[in-house]
Amino acid sequence: MLMAAATFNSLTLPFSKPEFPFSSIARTHIPTATLNLSRFRPTGFLLCSLSSDHPTTAAGGQLHHKTNTNSTDPQPQIHTCTWNWKGYSIRYQCSGSSGPALVLVHGFGANSNHWRKNIPVLAKSHRVYAIDLIGYGYSDKPNPREVGDSFYTFETWGSQLNDFCSSVVKDKAFFICNSIGGLVGLQAAVAKPEICRGLFLLNISLRMLHVKKQPWFGRPFIASFQSLLRNTAVGKLFFGSVATPESVRSILCQCYHDTSQVTKELVQIILHPGLEPGAVDVFLEFICYSGGPLPEELLPQVECPVLIAWGDKDPWESIELGRAYGDLDTVEDFVVLPNVGHCPQDEAPHLVNPLVESFVSRHSKSPANASTTI
């Protein structure tokens, strides 16, 4: 999850190092938080176009194709598609025509383009899908004040992920997840274990601002601060101050250990969807979400194989705290990625892609975990 550990210059929390989800926005100086979704309408159609830019919206159940010809390499084509979920337009990308199905789940404030260095490589031997969670990227961003306080929760995103596998992938799938996306993958796997073949979690969010992880004396302060951001002009002013190329670049340089990977392209990938109508409301809603599940609560319930990999230079999600997840019986291994920050899939794809391929290959051979259309 592109989590902005924000700090309003003069404002810091005295009781714990907070996290602040990064919705195409920021890590200035302010205490951080975490967010989520749930609630719906009827399911519908799907539109596909082949390109990695903002997709057009389908007016019906037809499929349109456009080819991405940005590279002369004989790589699998990447299709940008729109899926109608519960009445909302959901953008995703897909590539590859054979092999096990993989669904890539981005972190907070990111989108499916954050997997641009992984999709073409993994698609050579897998069917790869990368989805924009509702509220993020180029998917619809319903106003939380109109759809209800319980919309942006892990239950909603987990339901979206499972429905995506049933309606679009039409198969069981491996979930490859970064940061907050890891909670989404876990929630989906616990809710419908028959869909998830395996979980590969990259720097999963520790959710340090969760109410259970705060001392009693700090909780009122956090609640008041979140209310200030969500219910007054302060939140939108803050969002506006960080939703700039300069601020986004600064934030990315904090969470990427190798700052040479923070390119103009990456800045635009994160910033552009965050400037779309509705993005600020989703961002402010999420920073007020201090409940919901924790990784340590969901991991013991998972029935599929789980591998956790962690960039050891992550400044927002401490690897020392993350190592504890490796001790759980449901986790087969905890892999340290040296000299890598919070978003290993983009900063160090040369390390992540082979690990994904190995994990999927290992767990695709078991008859009990064989691919079955759903």
Automatic annotation (TrEMBL):
Gene3D superfamilies recorded: alpha/beta hydrolase (3.40.50.1820)
Domain AB hydrolase-1: 100-349
Organism: Gossypium darwinii
Name used for this protein in its record: AB hydrolase-1 domain-containing protein
UniProt cross-references to PANTHER family, sorted A to Z: ALPHA_BETA-HYDROLASES SUPERFAMILY PROTEIN (PTHR43689:SF53), HYDROLASE (PTHR43689)
A Pfam family: Abhydrolase_1
Stored SUPFAM superfamilies: alpha/beta-Hydrolases (SSF53474)
InterPro entries: AB_hydrolase_1, AB_hydrolase_fold
